[in-house]
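INFO batch 0412 | record 1 of 1 | parsing
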Amino acid sequence: MSKKHEWIEDGIDFTRLTKVPEGVGREMVTSDGYESLELYADMFMLDDEEVQTLKAIIKARRKGEQ
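INFO prediction complete | emitting tokens
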């Protein structure tokens, strides 16, 4: 299991990234239907550096979408 991380940073909830439509791949989706970096981190045993890198990528993309 991955180290405990802060899953909400700079107004982004990394446990609720993108709403996934019903019937679309549900393996890495929370019970309320969202993709979650926390699930990916646990499933793929990501280390701290990998989690921080993915957070930075997500933040940059979200900032670019605004």
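INFO post-check: Helices lie at 37-43, 48-65.
INFO record closed
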